[in-house]
Amino acid sequence: MAQSNSKGPDKETMRNWYRQMVLIRRFEEKCAELYSAGDIGGFLHLYIGQEAIVVAAQSVLREDDNIITAYRDHGVALARGLSTKGVMAEMLGKSTGVSKGKGGSMHLADKEKRFWGGWAIVGGHLPLAAGIALADQYNGDDRVTMALMGDGATNIGYFHEALNMAAVWKLPVVWVIENNQYGMGTAVTRASAVADIAKKAEAYGMPCCMQVDGMDLLELREMFTEAVEYVRSGEGSFMLEAITYRYRGHSMGDPERYREAHEVETRKADDPITRWGKYLTDKKIATKKDLEAIEKSAEEEVEEAVEFAQNSPLPDPEELYTDVYV
Ligand SMILES: Cc1ncc(C[n+]2csc(CCOP(=O)(O)OP(=O)(O)O)c2C)c(N)n1
Ligand SMILES: [Mg+2]
Q1: Which of 128, 170, 172 is CA-nearest to residue 153?
Q2: SS3 per-residue string spanning 96-151
Q3: Ligand 1 in contact with 249 (CB < 6 A)?
Q4: Nearest to 302 by CA among 43, 59, 78
Q5: What is the pTM of this model?
Q6: CA distance 242 to 50
Q7: CB-neighbour burial class of residue 262 (10 A; exposed 0-12, middle 13-18, buried 19+)
Q8: Residue 31: is the preceding peptide bond cis (ω within 30°)?
Q9: Counting beta carbons within 10 angstroms of the beta carbon of residue 324, is it exposed (0 to 12), middle (13 to 18) or buried (19 or more)?
Q10: Longest alpha-carbon distance in the chain
Q11: Do 110 and 131 touch, CB atoms closer than 8 A?
Q12: Which SS3 state, helix, strand or coil, does residue 69 take?
């Protein structure tokens, strides 16, 4: 998705970022409804509030770059350009889903788009990111690997092992911490010895201490641009921390006893979608009517995806024996 030129992004591209964020939001609101109705099973972790991060990240990546994330992965899949129908069908466990209905919410992936998943073990995908980057480095490809993770993942052994190897071998990875303030129900300040997570980069000799407002699309783009340029030039890894907030529970059914309702309400003033919409109208890049039309078209896309998913067949029982190692 090449979205900018030397003069900066054009108006259509900027409106498209709005559409991508709205699409993710509407998609997940619909998923919450379908989950409550029993149409989606397993776990469901919503990205609501964090949309600007992946849309900004994707806007500076090349189509052949790699991206990998944890279980809060619907936004990455949609921003990466996986079909809304295929992602929704996966949510419903249908054979037309991006993982043939066998992965579900936490295991979205697409090999052709170099979106390597969707991983449920906290931090478990970080050594994989290092391995993907090592393969590119070995083959002389100038691809960048972007690895997104939560704040909680930075307290896991995998994180420290992966960052150490990445630093020793100067692996081309952009490590993105999505600090949404909580790991399940534990506040960052209670779980991380250094709550200022961006500082952890220093321990591995990476540029320090890159922190960015994760609710601000333009600030994010600036930092991602710097990070991707640094990594692609062969300097090694770059770690950045995006300060964000999730408006919904950790997953569906989270009683949210660890925070007050007014905390969530207060944080809603920072909503990345409202902010970006305001920027577009203030700068006369879009009218309120344009934004409404974008919202309507995103809603229609989600409705069509639901219809497609509901009318799709379940995987054949024989599929239990395909795509397995042993
Ligand atoms: C190794 C491991 N330990 C514990 C869990 C249970 N668990 C699932 S999500 C989560 C919190 C992770 O928080 P964070 O990395 O901040 O990501 P967020 O959910 O906030 O996006 C935990 C502890 C797990 N999936 N894997
Ligand atoms: Mg978190």
Answers
A1: 128
A2: CCCCCCCCCHHHCCECCCCECCCCCCCCCCHHHHHHHHHHHHHHCCCCCEEEEEEC
A3: no
A4: 78
A5: 0.97
A6: 9
A7: exposed
A8: no
A9: exposed
A10: 58
A11: no
A12: coil
Q: Is the CB of 315 under 6 A from ligand 1?
A: no
Ligand 1 mean position, distance from CA 287 (Å): 40
Instruction: Give the chain's length.
Output: 326
Is residue 91 a contact partner of residue 34, using CB atoms and an 8 Å limit? yes
- List the chain pLDDT tens, one digit each, 326 residues: 444 446 789 999 999 999 999 999 999 999 999 999 999 999 999 999 999 999 999 999 999 999 999 999 999 999 999 999 999 999 999 999 999 999 999 999 999 999 999 999 999 999 999 999 999 999 999 999 999 999 999 999 999 999 999 999 999 999 999 999 999 999 999 999 999 999 999 999 999 999 999 999 999 999 999 999 999 999 999 999 999 999 999 999 999 999 999 999 999 999 999 999 999 999 999 999 999 999 999 999 999 999 999 999 999 999 999 999 88
C-alpha to C-alpha distances, 53 to 22, 216, 258, 276, 312, nearest whole angstrom: 13, 8, 24, 12, 32
Q: How far is CA 81 from CA 8, 173, 219, in A?
A: 22, 21, 22
Q: Of 72, 184, 241, 248, which is best to mutate to test ligand 1, by the most ligand atoms within 8 angstroms of its C-beta?
A: 184
Structure tokens at 12: 């259509």
Question: Which of the 8 DSSP states describes residue 313?
Answer: P
CA distance linking residue 194 with residue 211, whole number of Å: 14
Sign of CA dihedral 272, 84, 72, 220: negative
What span, in angstroms and rounded, lies between the C-alpha atoms of 54 and 76?
A: 6
- Ligand approaching nearest to the C-alpha of 185: 1
| Pocket flag, ligand 1, residue 75 (CB < 6 Å) | no
Residues 6+ apart with CB under 8 A from 266: none
All structural domains of the chain: 11-180+190-307 (3.40.50.970)
